[in-house]
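User: I want to check something. If I give you two sequences, will you return the structure for each one separately, not as a complex?

Assistant: Yes, each is folded on its own. Here is the first sequence with its structure:
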Amino acid sequence: MDENLHPLPIVDKVIKSLYGRVVNYVRLSKFTLGKELQSHVAELKANTPFHSPKVFEETMHEAVVRVSDFLEKRYGAHLLGLGMHPFIRLDDVKVWSHRDRQIYMALSRVFNLAQHGWLNIQSFQLNLPYSDERRAVTLHNALANILPYIPAVSASSPIYESKIGEFVDNRLHFYQINQKEIPSIAGDIVPEYVNSFEEYEKVTIERYSQDLMRANAPKCILYKEWLNSRGAVFRFDRRAIEIRIMDEQECIKSDVALSCFIRAFLRGFIRENEEHLPHSLLAEDLRAVIKDGLDAKVRHPKGPTARDVCRYFHKIAEENASKEEKQYLRIVKKRIENGNLSNLILRDVARRSQKSSFEEAVLNVYSSMTKNLLENKPYS
């Protein structure tokens, strides 16, 4: 984007500058820069898994700095994280038009891509590895019990199209309805419990593939595990579970903090063999959290609010975290008590709006987020 937050559809040009021609991704020394559906959005991902949150932070912040320096020198452009762009209009978004465009064309035959759940969306995706099927199923089912409450801490999408949305997590609101033509693809976002890979493939992947066939969907999107749009999905190709429930944060340090929170909590949840809550309760709580964030009224036994549940999760995480992880859990604790990024953004915009227009206030707040990303400094 430029200095006024106007999105720049230049990801193909950036890749061509780095690689010599337009490809889907460029693998650099420690990280990979790749394209997304939107031509103004780029994906940054590590080339190898991390065994230390500190290395995770250092590696990915280095990636942000290197890409930012390149963008500024070559195009006068900047990076912005968060779950949604505050100003972008759907008519202004360009879809990737190079290799793999046939997949997007196939999707457009079934779904209306001209909506925020497709064109104005950014998320922090965390991959948790597994060693065998038994451990994978255990991890998957445990994740279902934390996923509905993570957005209470991770929401960062309060504004879109220059207006305050009706939800604390507007990205997830649009995400859960962007494939309403085939509801089985996203389900309730909270993944259903499974007992085996075979059951997962039969109950989930085969079901939505059959629904797509009935809708005359092109073959290139049938029986694809990556099309599953629940908040956590098996990625068999990399022997990992990919978590998609989190809005992208303002800086790498905050993303790492969320990963430490989830990993440490799951460690304790699995170790204590805690009881799994009914799927219907979890799905209902997620809808409440998307709407009201930390203040959501929930049915979880540690309620009555999502903030209470997150406090409990944080306690479990603290008891099961490594020394390194505990350093990052402080950031999550602060978000639980003082508000998630959506809350903080709205408070700051309201304060600045007393002395300027709403749009100028939004511009100032989000512009400061570009500095947070570059300096790797949590917003507060």
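And separately, the second sequence with its own structure:
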Amino acid sequence: MHDVHDGLREAPPEVLDAAGRPRLGAYRGSPLAVDLDRASAPGLGRLDRPALRGLRRKSWRWVGVADAERTIVAAVVDLGFVGLAWACVAEGERLVERSWRAPLGAGVRVGGPNGPAVAMAPRRLISLSQRPGGDLNVTVEIEGMRIGLDIAQDAAPLTVVSDCAGRGLAGVTVKRAGATASGSIDVEGRRAVIGATSPAAAIVDWTCALLPRRMTWWWAAAAGRDQDGRIVGLNLARGVHDDPAGQFTENALWVDGAPAALPPVSFGVGAGRTPWTIRSPDGAVDLTFTPRVERGEDAAWVIVSSRYRQPFGTFSGRLTDARGRSVKFDGLPGVTEHHTAVW
């Protein structure tokens, strides 16, 4: 039985109504269908043509797994005009990364929220796919990097359906944080078994949206154990799925797999290894993030550009969610992001 006071509703089977309008809100669970090709999109105006809509639609699956020693990330991204794929392992101040771009998305496919996300190129593979038993499998096979992880379905999904940044463009994100994970990695000859000697927890982000041409957002996510030994996860963001009327956000806390809403937050972004702050006006969220190592890129492709920072590090502080659950932690592994794009 779910607590009706967690600030979330049960996810609808489809995120659009019969007229193509998005069913706006924050939900517990995952939808069965996401089809933004038929979404009402007044923000596109006279440019609403199938080919142009395909270029405006962005989708990705991002997976992060952390234990006491490292954070492992794999991502497959379809931006319409280009596909991106990367995997990296952060251990303290050491970052090993493998990445590539696929013009026009060749070899890159991002399925639905329960479907596969795959990027393939000669001698390179990143696959994020559900196993028949339900676990999400992460496979990376690139020179100098072999990753095989399974992420259990023991954290309930959070689904947010939004009018992206209030621009008349539909967007959907499905996230889980605090799921348990296990497997193995081999990175440049350094081998490790994940989840064997210390617990490993995962963050999973699936997003599909008709994003505005100009976007800036901030994001933070983490998973691990709080000071009471409970498995916790958090997702905090600003700039994409916030409801202009203030009725919902994609901010949530998971405790032992159960999500509940968190209030809107503001981000204080630190430069380099300077700590970040993430706080809510009501004091329910009061976090400090300390970066250790960073993945970033400044890129420009003719009429599009992207400035991207994704530091890895640890969170300290406290949270109180819509159910009144309070958690405290010091050294919870996670990631933050600051992204400005013209797409």
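Because they were folded independently, the notes below concern the second chain alone. The chain has a mean pLDDT of 93. The helical segments are 50-56.
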